[in-house]
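Input sequence (132 aa), recorded before submission:
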Amino acid sequence: LAADQEGYWVRRGWDQQALVRTTSVIDTVAVDSPVASGDQTLIPIGGIAWSGDRGISKVEVQVDGGDWAEAQLRAPISDRAWTIWRYDWPFSAGQHNFTVRATEGDGTPQIEASEGVRPSGATGYHSVSRTV
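Predicted structure, token format:
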């Protein structure tokens, strides 16, 4: 080409830079796999987090709008792989809302506000509700 031109996807309304947005997801609230810890019952909550090559330094889980609790992270298999996380939640019977957020390797937090995928990728915290 004689000059720069917008790419195929940019001409269709997508971001020219297309940088990966940090995301975290709750994949399971394992109510059928409780863990005994002393006299307390814990429910494993787990999922994945990703921010491209920027890495994940922290994942936190919030239950019913309460305080954020830090999850355990498994070391990713490469600098561009998903980070698997787990949080053992102290069991409490009833209907509960679980929310997850991630922090990038340099301390940049995941964007809280929900936006659709266009033009730069989806944002927002992932939440699930479960009766346990």
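Checked by second reader. The chain is about 0% helix and 45% strand.
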